[in-house]
Design a protein that fits this description.
- The protein has about 475 residues and is α/β, with parallel strands linked by helices.
- It has twelve helices and 18 strands.
- Strands 1, 2, 3, 4, 5, 15, 16, 17 and 18 form a nine-stranded mixed sheet that branches. Strands 6, 7, 8, 9, 10, 11, 12, 13 and 14 form a nine-stranded parallel sheet that branches.
- α8 links the parallel β12 and β13.
- The longest helix has 18 residues.
- The chain is globular.
- It binds N-(aminocarbonyl)-beta-alanine (URP) and zinc ion (3 copies).
- The site of one zinc ion has 6 residues, from α3 and α4.
- Its EC number is 3.5.2.2.
- Keywords: Hydrolase, Metal-binding, Plasmid.
- It comes from Skermanella cutis.
- GO terms for molecular function: dihydropyrimidinase activity.
Length: about 475
């Protein structure tokens, strides 16, 4: 036969089907999926393993600027190394526009960071922090044409927050371009108010990060984003949803017929605000500071309800790693003085699949096919990578993870390939683990060993999202 590689005897799982089949790979693509294929130039025995589309993580932060705070712990080399070790083959990080900068120049900076360093394929979402007339009128439409077909806007953070008028302008622009808008829904003024009150009362430990931005603050912003999206008739993706109240806002909008989509993350089914208390309300709680903050066990159940009932389409890591102890000079000492200065974000690109598999599939909350949809297929469809990425069928890129459904592991830092000096999931027991990762038919990671090289991954120019078509057509 003329296959370069045949993966033999595994159980092939897609978002639709679970079948015992061989997978034939030629020139980096899947050439055949059949009951039994002839050997190719190479053969891998996958008996006892699941063969799934490589994970696509559509929410990761790599090599973002520090804005005076500590540097991010992952650039493209370590971040994507961690991604492939965790069974992923595509990531979509963000190209952030600092205020006052041109969007195009910002994108060029990120390409410089990624070029030759990435172990997996990658696209970019844009982060719009300065929606000037020229950004909305010229730069954004041109970048959407060039394959940056989604962008994120923020309703909080000093350096990123947009006011309501700006949100509406960006939404309207997205509608015209056919781009998908991702929204970080937390209310800036409410957080500022709470932060100042807490600091005045001497409540500065990392735990008060969670107190400063309770679920109501996320719910309010979620509702506001949905209302603005309705007004401008633009589909929106509400990212990193933490609990019942924002989940119910999205569900309410979906039942109304609005094109509102939802994403959730491992931290919202595996961590709680109590983790931010650390050992004894001490600074070790800083390891769990992310936004929105993890909530409580009832929130985990609400997130599962949203996952099971289709409120959420994607399960992403929101990988955004910082050093805890850090390499010399990397840590901002200010982070020890108040939760306000603890950088927001935690590592998770490598542990996303095992956590969802273990708590979802093994514990009987979701099917194998739902697992694949939530970790790969829906990301490809949502962000314009389908039908190149996200499934196992002839013509798709041969991006695969061979998965041992019975492997028991304990998540710990020494297993991780990221740049951060800790994992927030330290000590968590999981069942199900990636055994081998193939990027376009190349073995890139095996049993925790990195086999691929920086530069194996390439830039993905993404198509328009089929989910981003406005409810009422393209013309106003
Ligand atoms: O705390 C988080 N999630 N930091 C990453 C930035 C973001 O808002 O996604
Ligand atoms: Zn536009
Ligand atoms: Zn965010
Ligand atoms: Zn994020």
């Amino acid at each position: 036969s003329d296959f370069d590689l045949v993966i033999r005897g595994g159980t092939v799982v897609t978002a639709a089907d679970t079948v015992r089949a061989d997978v034939g790979i030629r020139s980096g693509r899947i050439a055949a999926v059949a009951d039994r294929l002839e050997d190719g130039a190479a053969r891998v025995d996958a008996s006892g393993l699941l063969v799934m589309p490589g994970g696509i993580d559509s929410h990761v932060h790599l090599a973002q600027p520090a804005f005076g705070g500590p540097a991010m712990a992952d650039g493209f080399e370590t971040g994507t190394r961690s991604a492939i070790a965790g069974g992923n083959t595509t990531v979509i990080p963000f190209a952030l526009q600092p205020r006052g900068a041109s969007l195009r120049a910002s994108v060029a900076d990120y390409h410089k960071e990624a070029d030759g360093r990435s172990y997996c394929d990658y696209g970019f979402h844009l982060i719009i922090s300065d929606p000037t007339a020229s950004v909305l009128g010229q730069e954004l439409p041109a970048l959407v044409d060039d394959g940056y077909t989604s962008f994120k806007v923020f309703m909080t953070y000093d350096d990123l927050v947009l006011n309501d008028r700006q949100l509406l302008e960006v939404f309207d622009c997205a509608r015209g371009c056919g781009a998908l808008v991702m929204v970080h829904c937390e209310g800036y003024d409410a957080i500022r108010f709470m932060t100042e009150r807490l600091e005045q009362a001497g409540r500065k430990a990392p735990y008060y990060h969670a107190v400063s931005r309770p679920e109501s603050v996320e719910r309010e912003a979620t509702h506001r984003a949905i209302s603005h999206a309705e007004l401008t008739d633009v589909p929106v993706m509400i990212v990193h949803v933490s609990g019942r109240e924002p989940m119910e806002q999205i569900r309410w909008a979906q039942r109304k017929g609005l094109k509102v989509y939802g994403e959730t993350c491992p931290q919202y089914i595996a961590l709680t605000a109590d983790d931010l208390k650390g050992l004894n309300m001490d600074e070790t709680g800083g390891k769990y500071v992310c936004s929105p903050p993890p909530r409580d066990h009832a929130s985990w159940e609400a997130i599962w309800e949203g996952i099971r009932t289709g409120v959420f389409q994607t399960f992403s890591s929101d990988h955004c790693p910082f050093y805890y102890e850090g390499e010399q000079g990397k840590l901002n000492p200010k982070a020890r003085t108040s939760f306000r200065w603890v950088p927001n974000g935690i590592p998770g690109v490598e542990t996303r699949l095992p956590i969802l598999y273990s708590k979802g599939v093994v514990e009987g909350r979701i099917s194998l096919n739902e697992f694949v949809a939530l970790t790969s297929t829906n990301h490809a469809k949502m962000y314009g990578l389908y039908p190149r990425k996200g499934s196992i069928a002839p013509g798709f890129d041969a991006d695969l993870v061979l998965w041992d459904p019975n492997r028991k592991e304990t998540i710990r830092q020494e297993l991780m390939h990221h740049g951060a000096d800790y994992t927030p999931y330290e000590g968590m027991a999981v069942t199900g683990w990636p055994v081998a990762t193939y990027l376009r038919g190349m073995l890139v990671a095996e049993e925790g060993r990195i086999v691929g090289e920086p530069g194996d991954g390439g830039f993905l120019k993404r198509g328009l999202s089929p989910y981003a078509v406005p409810a009422h057509g393209r013309e106003i």
